[in-house]
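Crash report, auto-generated. Payload:
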Amino acid sequence: MLTERQRMILNAIVDDYIRSAEPVGSRSISKRGDVKYSPATIRNEMADLEELGFLEQPHTSAGRIPSHKGYRYYVDHLVPWNPAGSTETETIRAFFAEKLNAMEQLIQHAAMILSNMTNYTSILLGPEVFHTSLRHFQLLPLDDRTAVAIIVTSTGQVENRKVSIPPEISVSEMEKVVNLLNSKLVNVPLYKLKSRLYSELGQEMQRHISHYEELMQMLDMALESDSEQRVYLSGATNMLTQPEFRDVDKVKDILDLLEETPTLLKMLAPAAGGTGIQVRIGTENKHEAFAACSLITATYSIDGEAVGSIGILGPTRMEYAKVLGILGVLSRDLTAMLGHWYK
Amino acid sequence: MLTERQRMILNAIVDDYIRSAEPVGSRSISKRGDVKYSPATIRNEMADLEELGFLEQPHTSAGRIPSHKGYRYYVDHLVPWNPAGSTETETIRAFFAEKLNAMEQLIQHAAMILSNMTNYTSILLGPEVFHTSLRHFQLLPLDDRTAVAIIVTSTGQVENRKVSIPPEISVSEMEKVVNLLNSKLVNVPLYKLKSRLYSELGQEMQRHISHYEELMQMLDMALESDSEQRVYLSGATNMLTQPEFRDVDKVKDILDLLEETPTLLKMLAPAAGGTGIQVRIGTENKHEAFAACSLITATYSIDGEAVGSIGILGPTRMEYAKVLGILGVLSRDLTAMLGHWYK
DNA sequence: GTTAGCACTCGACCTAGATGAGTGCTAACC
DNA sequence: GGTTAGCACTCATCTAGGTCGAGTGCTAAC
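Recovered output after restart:
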């Protein structure tokens, strides 16, 4: 579709624009050294590239900037695919060498490392508990009316919630039920817990236990969908350092969206479906506040199954090569780490 | 120190400036209605107030703005102390009527309500676990090399961390130790756990248990200081709506600091020492990035003891009356709620 | 003690001209 | 035919000068 020379020129323009954030003129391309044509020739090609929709011109007498289509072509065909520089790889390796003794810490820390390395905003989705199963269930009374329900998953995550104990239920009855649950529901996937509770244990419990109704209500509450996936955000303020977001009004909308957990979830969740690294440029993100942003996402897995995702948000004028490299290494290493952790 | 008229005029200037964010002239004060003097008279008083250090003039031919000292006087002597409007009180009441079944959710939600009501940034310090005691301890094996240590506190908070099991230790031994811990260490304050572990249980365990060293090392890790207080932030982007922070460079430093948990901790922690509501204006905050900000803090308690604090960060030109009212009601209600919750 | 009047100050805003980076087009060159 | 030098043209940015008006400080009158 594009001639070799056009690709070279497009590549040069995107490269320059990523560095300078300013419209690129034909003369500066000519001076770069890798495109050995005069400015006039380059101008002609640039006019063609603009007609084809790969470039845009802010105004008549300015240089060109890449259009969304231009970035897309750059990402798909031109971006130098180097699997992260050695210093970066080293930083990531060093990070994973640290001993972090809780999943939460690990993910949070990873988000920080990412935003520091890239100078963009990093968004991490904690591991989806959807496919994990129950390891242990416990009800711990705090006083005679409330208790803490503790759920430990097969991956070692611990969730807890407070429940109120129906006054009719005795301590011994509760213990009986908890034991029953542990013997029957261990290794059942979390999302099936509640249906199993009714189908398998319902009858048995109804026989042995008084106040079946109240008890079930309490257990229902205790096992309430814990699938609220955690979102970790880091380096949101890096947005402010980008020249395209010097204007407070523009950046406000973006930062507002970043404060909303459900929005972030929606943005990163679809990525988990696909595999590998995905790039969404400008309006390919649904929210119009992100029209001037690009989002690069990758997934990580436990046991061969994608359970969470990593995202880097920056301006469309993003250092794609660098970010792609870093994200590749990090998602691979995170997968390896977790696989090793939870055999 | 100030005449009644001077106080009236100072009050009017601060009031106006809080609303408009623009230097206040003598004419607009005169037109307000509550100060029945001509602009000329007011000008004379303003000159005096400036000499006394309560007002400042951005440049010769502009109106006056309050100095830090002016704000301080306003907050200490002039601010209309109304305990939150009825609509606001209602909103807060409605919030507490909601059923939230985990401490974490409650606090996080409270932070959101606060920032929404005030349009400033709210910072909440989760309850300090320092003075809470151990309710229950558990070690749950995940595989033959790792286990999850679960600590439940007297306030129903659940902490967990992953520990590695020394290969020499058998399951039965571990159970024995956990039972011992639960019988001996329950109701011991968390911060004393580790010392008690050594002092009270050391000898006994050394007698009964083989591989004492390795075991102790594991327990040490499991009981590792969990006192990392959680910080909840909400509405950080509200800073961007303030006209004094239209400039990205100014607001960047502030938002950067807000991303650092330790900084927030340091800022709010001292407040927990004092009692009641405190106002820190401008440079009274230690960080110079906050020189143009005011921080209003309040504490909340469990069982008569201050365990956490609430902060509202805004420009020095803050709606002190409104925020003070809201914060007063919220901290009182939060205290009541928690007291009720954890009898 | 209070107020009207007035000269003065100074930032905000507008306009006009200079500057220069960059373009599109044409004609000459290889 | 592809490439390039030359040139007129465009247009955002910058600067300087000028107007405007809000607000002051001072003086004199009430």
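Post-recovery validation: The interface with chain A takes residues 101-103, 135-136, 138, 140, 142-143, 146, 148, 150, 152, 154, 156, 158, 160-163, 221, 224, 234-237, 240-241, 245-248, 251-252, 255-256, 259, 341-343 of chain B (CB under 8 Å).
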